[in-house]
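Practice problem 4.
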């Protein structure tokens, strides 16, 4: 397990299964801010141990609003569970304060399916201004097969595809055999003005960020969670 302390200059969010160790007292009214790497739409379980947990106050900083985790946690004072961090959330920020001098440690785990190299479920829409694009899994033309999950018949996954060629590229979807029956894998063309084009399996795409849309095939009669394996699109 990686261990970080509050004397270190940590600019990146703490990954799952790593541990943050800190100390705080009543004179530190601004508190300690701890950033945890999480997965969009997934559950996060945060374990906090302290020399005096009853003296501490733990809040989740969520945009313009704060959620007091200490007050909402009655069953297990050392474990805080956020069942769904949010559809595009990849970082949970905690603020720790204390009315007495204490030492403490924080670690966390992420629970739920993962799409691509992310820790969470791919959003069901294209990203917008203000979104953290890290919530969206990416696919590139590198010959690597990527895996995603459709958790329900209504689930839609959006993967990002970056075209870097100045004159654009012809892109053709190349799904794996097991994905052909269960899923519809289509290219989503994003115009220069942000407008979304139609869904096709082959398109001429301009330079910029586009998307791959994955949804359940309505003719598929299988049950349970469906696994989509995405191979890199063919670029011409």
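Answer key:
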């Amino acid at each position: 397990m990686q261990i970080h302390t509050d004397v270190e200059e940590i600019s990146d969010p703490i990954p799952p299964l790593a541990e943050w160790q800190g100390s705080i007292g009543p004179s530190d009214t601004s508190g300690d801010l701890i950033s945890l790497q999480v997965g969009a739409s997934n559950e996060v379980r945060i374990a906090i141990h302290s020399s005096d947990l009853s003296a501490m106050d733990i809040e989740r900083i969520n945009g313009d609003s704060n959620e007091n985790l200490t007050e909402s946690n009655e069953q297990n004072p050392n474990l805080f569970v956020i069942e769904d961090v949010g559809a595009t959330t990849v970082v949970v920020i905690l603020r720790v304060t204390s009315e007495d001098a204490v030492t403490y440690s924080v670690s966390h785990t992420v629970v739920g399916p993962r799409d691509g190299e992310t820790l969470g479920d791919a959003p069901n829409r294209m990203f917008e201004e203000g979104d953290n694009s890290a919530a969206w899994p990416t696919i590139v033309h590198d010959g690597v097969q990527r895996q995603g999950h459709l958790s329900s018949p209504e689930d839609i996954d959006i993967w990002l595809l970056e075209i870097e060629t100045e004159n654009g590229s012809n892109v053709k979807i190349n799904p794996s055999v097991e994905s052909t029956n269960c899923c519809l894998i289509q290219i989503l063309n994003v115009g220069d003005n942000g407008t979304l084009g139609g869904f096709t399996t082959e398109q001429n795409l301009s330079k910029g960020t586009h998307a791959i849309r994955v949804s359940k095939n309505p003719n598929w009669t299988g049950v349970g969670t469906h696994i989509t394996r995405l191979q890199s699109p063919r670029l011409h």
